[in-house]
Structure formats: C-alpha cells, structure tokens
Amino acid sequence: MIPHDKLFIPGPVEVSAKTMAAFSRPMIGHRSEDFKNLYRDVHPKLQKLFATKQPVFLSTSSAWGVMEASIRNLVDRGVLCCMCGAFSDKWFDVARRCGKNAEPLQVDWGKHINPKDVDAKLATGKFDTVVLIHSETSTGVMNPLPEICCTLAKYPDVALVVDTVSSFSGVKIDMDALGIDVMLTGTQKALALPPGFSLFSVSEKALARAEKIPNRGYYFDFIEFKKQQAEWMTQSTPSIGHIHALQSKLAEIFEEGLDARFARHARTNTLVHDWVRRAGFDFFAEEGFRTKTLTCVRNSRGIDVAKLVRDLRTKHHLVIDGGYGPIKGKSFRLSNMGDETEEMVSQLLACLDDVL
Ligand SMILES: *Cc1c(COP(=O)(O)O)cnc(C)c1O
C-alpha cells in the first residue's frame, strides 16, 4: 500500500489493502447474472450481521441518505427525535426540512437518552416514529438500546429507526429480537470500507407503513428497494466496487467470528479507556454509556488539542480527530473501529504518550 497517514478518526477509518483490492475489481453489469450472484452471496451474511430475517438493502448513498429516507418513508403524524450530539441533533433538522412534524427530546452532549423520557413523550400519542442514534459518534455516548426498545414495545403503532453507523459490527445488535423497524449503517466506520455507501433493513411493520405514505420519491423509496431486492437488484446503478469490497469484508468477519469481533472491539476500547485514565484525562461521555468503538476524550488537562493532532501526524503519521464542532479543542476522539488490533491501538497510545 502507498505510504500514507493512518486514520484513527471515527470515520472514515483505515481501509486495508485487501479491501481496496476488492473495491477495484473489474466492473460487472448491474443487470447481469454476475451482479445477482454478488447480491445473493452477500445477503445471508448481511442478515446474520443485522440478526434479521428481513431483506437487507444496499444504498448508494452515505448513511444520511437512509436517515433522510426513513423520515420520508415512515413519518405521518409526527417524529420524536432523540438528540444527544451532532448527528442526532442534525437528524431533527433533516426531519423538519422534509416538512414533517418533528419534536426534540434533547439532552446535553455527553449524556444519554433516558427510556423514561421516551416513554413520557410517546404517551402523548403525538408520534408514530422515533429516531435514535445508538452510538453518538460526536460525543462517544452509547444509548441504552435494549431498554429503549422495551419502552417502544408498549407502543406497537410507533416505528423505531436506529442509526448504528458507528456501532454496527463492532457491538452486538439484534434487529429482530430488539424489535427495531429500520436499522441502518454506513460503510466507512466499523466495517472499514470506503465511504459513500450504506446498508439497511426494514421490518414488515415499517414496510406496511411506507406503502401508505405519499411522496416517497423513487431513489429512496423503501417499497422500491424491496421490489428490486426480490430480484437481487437495485433501482439504479449501484456502487459495485463497494459491494465487492463488502463481499471481501464479510468473508473476513465470519472467518474471525462475530463474537470474536465484538470481543476484539471491547478489548481495544478498554486499552484506550485505560490510557485515558493513565494520561490524566476524563471521558466526555457519562459513565455506563460509553461506546465501544471510539472514545471521546474530555480535554480535562487543558492541552493544546490542535497541536497534539498536528504533532501526531507529522511525527508518527497517525491521524486523530480534534473534537466535533462546538466541542473542538475541548475534546478529541480516538477510534478503535474496523480492523484495529490490540497491537495497533497500543502503538497509537504509545505515540500519543510520545507527543504529549
Ligand atoms: C458518520 C455518521 C453519520 C453520517 O454518515 P455519512 O456517511 O456522512 O452520511 C451518521 N450517523 C452517525 C452516528 C455517524 O457516526
């Protein structure tokens, strides 16, 4: 692989030479038998990763495409937007731009969404949809998904949309068992594929809802995705390179084993957490609600974060993130997503010690 600065930002993450080789395989026709065989091959593995019996769809868009599509396909009466950081806050704005009746359930950045607050909001009967980010990448918060899903079970008419962009395949999430109606993810985070593509699955309940919602458009119409998937196709020419790369990655994932993969992410995350304490920093996310695939470090030592980021890059050719938007400089983020091993994460931490 050509020499480059290695990414430890929380997406895009480092993409291996093996994945890049699959990404640049010779092109095939998207209406050919070759393509159908490719989709047929990845599909059962994707269902296993999502832990669903529902069809899994391939979207040539970044995750935001499917986040917006979920609003346009499902929201009729109103959407409750669980907001606890940059991505979830933005989703509320997107819902309003789609002309939907949207209400915030906002907590301070660094805090988690409390299932009791979701319950109180849903009891008003104003909402038919809830959107939630499982792992809020900007703050490093992981929301209590099983507990929130338990609350949703009391409201069978409400659809739950869960963004698992920075947790998918790094943390166990069982879509069907949890009763998730739309589960979506992007490719450039824990899957360690190039950016610009996303995967999602939709429950029977949500598909039935979508059928009755007008003005779903074409490119992001869930019903169209379903119709095309039944023929092992997509409604337009997809990014075939991404699907080749996905096929290669899925083989690696099941070779490692799902549980081993989750355990590896937990171990590398623990290494980062131990370093945070040892280096005298604090965590941005509250205790008990910290994501396992990245760490948002609170700059409690008051260091020059921009300098840290710069020095790490020039001296060690490693790239970390200097904090998202309003918490830039007050925090920095270290990713342990994707292919990272204990050896590689330990190396990152040693280099951080060196430049500090
Ligand atoms: C990165 C990220 C997104 C946005 O992904 P795009 O590929 O930029 O569309 C959405 N949600 C979460 C939680 C993310 O981490």
Instruction: Report the major sheet.
Output: 7 strands, mixed
The helix/strand class is alpha/beta
CATH architecture title of the largest domain: 3-Layer(aba) Sandwich
In terms of DSSP E residues, the strand content is: 15-25%
Overall radius of gyration: 20 Å
Biggest sheet, spatial arrangement of strands: 2-10-9-8-5-3-4
In total, how many domains does the architecture comprise?
2
N-to-C CA distance: 29 Å
Question: What small molecules are bound in this structure?
Answer: pyridoxal-5'-phosphate
Helix content: 40-55%
List how many beta strands DSSP finds.
14
CATH uppermost class of the largest domain: Alpha Beta
Oligomer: single chain
CATH superfamily of the largest domain: Type I PLP-dependent aspartate aminotransferase-like (Major domain)
CATH topology of the largest domain: Aspartate Aminotransferase, domain 2
Order of helices and strands: EHHEHEHEHEEEHEHEEHHHHEEHEEH
SS summary, helix count? 13
